[in-house]
Predict the structure.
Amino acid sequence: MITEIAQIEVKPGMESEFESGVKTAAPIFKRAKGCRAMELRRSLEKPSRYRLFVAWETVENHTNDFRGSPDFQEWRKLVAHCFASPPEVEHVAQVLRGF
Amino acid sequence: MITEIAQIEVKPGMESEFESGVKTAAPIFKRAKGCRAMELRRSLEKPSRYRLFVAWETVENHTNDFRGSPDFQEWRKLVAHCFASPPEVEHVAQVLRGF
Protein backbone atom coordinates (compact mmCIF):
# COMPACT_ATOMS: atom_id res chain seq x y z
CA MET A 1 0.00 0.00 0.00
CA ILE A 2 1.36 3.42 -0.96
CA THR A 3 -0.02 6.93 -0.71
CA GLU A 4 -0.15 9.45 -3.50
CA ILE A 5 0.30 13.00 -2.23
CA ALA A 6 -0.77 15.63 -4.75
CA GLN A 7 0.02 19.20 -3.72
CA ILE A 8 -2.47 21.42 -5.47
CA GLU A 9 -2.37 25.22 -5.61
CA VAL A 10 -5.87 26.55 -6.31
CA LYS A 11 -6.64 29.88 -7.94
CA PRO A 12 -7.55 32.32 -5.15
CA GLY A 13 -11.33 32.55 -4.85
CA MET A 14 -11.92 29.08 -6.31
CA GLU A 15 -11.39 27.14 -3.09
CA SER A 16 -15.08 26.28 -2.58
CA GLU A 17 -15.51 25.20 -6.19
CA PHE A 18 -12.42 23.05 -5.94
CA GLU A 19 -13.58 21.39 -2.71
CA SER A 20 -16.96 20.74 -4.26
CA GLY A 21 -15.32 19.19 -7.33
CA VAL A 22 -13.24 16.85 -5.19
CA LYS A 23 -16.34 15.80 -3.27
CA THR A 24 -18.17 15.05 -6.51
CA ALA A 25 -15.16 13.07 -7.70
CA ALA A 26 -15.01 10.77 -4.67
CA PRO A 27 -16.98 7.95 -6.43
CA ILE A 28 -14.51 8.11 -9.34
CA PHE A 29 -11.68 7.25 -6.98
CA LYS A 30 -13.77 4.74 -5.06
CA ARG A 31 -14.31 2.66 -8.19
CA ALA A 32 -10.70 2.96 -9.42
CA LYS A 33 -8.68 -0.27 -9.43
CA GLY A 34 -6.59 -0.59 -6.28
CA CYS A 35 -7.83 2.66 -4.70
CA ARG A 36 -8.41 2.26 -0.98
CA ALA A 37 -8.91 5.73 0.51
CA MET A 38 -9.05 9.40 -0.38
CA GLU A 39 -8.97 12.56 1.68
CA LEU A 40 -8.38 16.25 1.10
CA ARG A 41 -6.44 18.48 3.46
CA ARG A 42 -6.01 22.23 3.33
CA SER A 43 -2.98 24.22 4.42
CA LEU A 44 -3.48 26.56 7.37
CA GLU A 45 -0.51 28.74 6.40
CA LYS A 46 -1.44 28.96 2.70
CA PRO A 47 -5.23 28.48 2.38
CA SER A 48 -5.11 28.15 -1.41
CA ARG A 49 -2.85 25.11 -1.07
CA TYR A 50 -4.38 21.67 -0.73
CA ARG A 51 -3.01 18.19 -0.47
CA LEU A 52 -4.96 15.29 -1.85
CA PHE A 53 -4.04 11.98 -0.24
CA VAL A 54 -4.99 8.85 -2.16
CA ALA A 55 -4.12 5.35 -0.94
CA TRP A 56 -3.38 2.82 -3.70
CA GLU A 57 -2.44 -0.84 -3.55
CA THR A 58 0.44 -0.17 -5.96
CA VAL A 59 2.01 2.86 -7.63
CA GLU A 60 0.95 1.42 -11.00
CA ASN A 61 -2.70 1.45 -9.93
CA HIS A 62 -2.30 5.22 -9.91
CA THR A 63 0.20 5.96 -12.67
CA ASN A 64 -0.93 3.34 -15.20
CA ASP A 65 -4.43 2.14 -14.43
CA PHE A 66 -6.01 5.36 -13.19
CA ARG A 67 -4.18 7.86 -15.35
CA GLY A 68 -4.84 5.70 -18.40
CA SER A 69 -8.57 5.40 -17.72
CA PRO A 70 -11.45 7.57 -18.97
CA ASP A 71 -12.19 8.32 -15.31
CA PHE A 72 -8.96 10.30 -15.08
CA GLN A 73 -10.37 12.70 -17.68
CA GLU A 74 -13.60 12.92 -15.67
CA TRP A 75 -11.59 13.78 -12.56
CA ARG A 76 -9.67 16.51 -14.37
CA LYS A 77 -12.88 17.94 -15.83
CA LEU A 78 -14.20 18.42 -12.31
CA VAL A 79 -11.19 20.20 -10.82
CA ALA A 80 -8.47 21.16 -13.32
CA HIS A 81 -9.97 24.59 -14.06
CA CYS A 82 -9.35 25.47 -10.40
CA PHE A 83 -5.60 24.70 -10.54
CA ALA A 84 -3.28 27.71 -10.36
CA SER A 85 -0.37 25.49 -11.52
CA PRO A 86 0.20 21.82 -12.34
CA PRO A 87 -0.12 19.66 -9.19
CA GLU A 88 3.09 18.30 -7.68
CA VAL A 89 2.62 14.57 -7.27
CA GLU A 90 4.71 12.21 -5.18
CA HIS A 91 4.26 8.73 -3.73
CA VAL A 92 5.21 7.79 -0.19
CA ALA A 93 5.38 4.58 1.80
CA GLN A 94 4.96 4.37 5.55
CA VAL A 95 8.24 3.41 7.24
CA LEU A 96 7.23 3.98 10.85
CA ARG A 97 3.94 4.16 12.74
CA GLY A 98 5.04 5.77 15.99
CA PHE A 99 1.64 5.51 17.72
CA MET B 1 -7.37 18.32 15.24
CA ILE B 2 -4.71 19.38 12.76
CA THR B 3 -1.76 17.62 11.19
CA GLU B 4 1.79 18.89 11.06
CA ILE B 5 3.59 17.82 7.89
CA ALA B 6 7.35 18.20 8.09
CA GLN B 7 9.17 17.53 4.84
CA ILE B 8 12.67 16.42 5.74
CA GLU B 9 15.56 15.96 3.33
CA VAL B 10 18.09 13.58 4.84
CA LYS B 11 21.79 13.49 3.98
CA PRO B 12 22.32 10.61 1.54
CA GLY B 13 23.54 7.55 3.41
CA MET B 14 21.97 8.62 6.71
CA GLU B 15 18.50 7.27 6.00
CA SER B 16 18.76 4.32 8.43
CA GLU B 17 20.17 6.49 11.20
CA PHE B 18 17.39 9.01 10.67
CA GLU B 19 14.66 6.34 10.75
CA SER B 20 16.17 4.90 13.90
CA GLY B 21 16.24 8.36 15.51
CA VAL B 22 12.58 8.94 14.72
CA LYS B 23 11.70 5.55 16.20
CA THR B 24 13.59 6.38 19.38
CA ALA B 25 11.81 9.74 19.52
CA ALA B 26 8.30 8.28 19.39
CA PRO B 27 7.83 8.40 23.21
CA ILE B 28 8.82 12.09 23.16
CA PHE B 29 5.88 12.83 20.89
CA LYS B 30 3.58 10.45 22.72
CA ARG B 31 4.00 12.40 25.95
CA ALA B 32 3.75 15.84 24.31
CA LYS B 33 0.69 17.91 25.22
CA GLY B 34 -2.05 17.51 22.60
CA CYS B 35 -0.12 15.04 20.45
CA ARG B 36 -2.36 12.27 19.14
CA ALA B 37 -0.45 10.37 16.45
CA MET B 38 2.87 10.23 14.63
CA GLU B 39 4.02 8.45 11.52
CA LEU B 40 6.93 8.65 9.12
CA ARG B 41 6.60 8.22 5.37
CA ARG B 42 9.35 7.99 2.79
CA SER B 43 9.23 9.24 -0.78
CA LEU B 44 9.45 6.60 -3.49
CA GLU B 45 10.67 9.09 -6.09
CA LYS B 46 13.28 10.72 -3.83
CA PRO B 47 14.34 8.17 -1.19
CA SER B 48 16.24 10.74 0.88
CA ARG B 49 13.02 12.71 1.36
CA TYR B 50 10.75 11.92 4.27
CA ARG B 51 7.53 13.35 5.57
CA LEU B 52 6.79 13.26 9.25
CA PHE B 53 3.07 13.46 10.03
CA VAL B 54 2.14 14.49 13.55
CA ALA B 55 -1.46 14.95 14.68
CA TRP B 56 -2.02 17.68 17.27
CA GLU B 57 -5.16 18.90 18.98
CA THR B 58 -4.22 22.50 18.13
CA VAL B 59 -1.48 24.24 16.14
CA GLU B 60 -0.29 25.85 19.38
CA ASN B 61 0.31 22.42 20.93
CA HIS B 62 2.99 22.07 18.28
CA THR B 63 4.32 25.59 17.77
CA ASN B 64 4.19 26.80 21.38
CA ASP B 65 3.97 23.89 23.78
CA PHE B 66 6.19 21.38 22.00
CA ARG B 67 8.72 23.72 20.43
CA GLY B 68 9.07 25.54 23.76
CA SER B 69 9.66 22.36 25.74
CA PRO B 70 12.96 20.65 26.64
CA ASP B 71 11.65 17.62 24.73
CA PHE B 72 11.96 19.57 21.49
CA GLN B 73 15.70 19.78 22.08
CA GLU B 74 15.76 16.04 22.78
CA TRP B 75 13.99 15.41 19.49
CA ARG B 76 16.44 17.55 17.55
CA LYS B 77 19.39 15.84 19.23
CA LEU B 78 18.17 12.52 17.90
CA VAL B 79 17.65 13.53 14.27
CA ALA B 80 18.94 17.01 13.35
CA HIS B 81 22.43 15.78 12.40
CA CYS B 82 20.76 13.76 9.62
CA PHE B 83 19.05 16.78 8.02
CA ALA B 84 20.45 17.91 4.67
CA SER B 85 18.51 21.19 5.00
CA PRO B 86 16.04 22.77 7.43
CA PRO B 87 12.71 20.86 7.40
CA GLU B 88 9.77 22.52 5.66
CA VAL B 89 6.89 22.52 8.11
CA GLU B 90 3.24 23.14 7.34
CA HIS B 91 -0.05 22.46 9.11
CA VAL B 92 -3.11 21.06 7.37
CA ALA B 93 -6.73 20.45 8.31
CA GLN B 94 -8.89 17.75 6.78
CA VAL B 95 -11.66 19.29 4.66
CA LEU B 96 -12.99 16.12 3.03
CA ARG B 97 -12.85 12.44 3.85
CA GLY B 98 -13.86 10.89 0.53
CA PHE B 99 -13.97 7.30 1.75
Remarks:
- The domain at 2-92 of chain B is CATH 3.30.70.100 (Alpha-Beta Plaits).
- The longest strand of chain B covers residues 88-97.
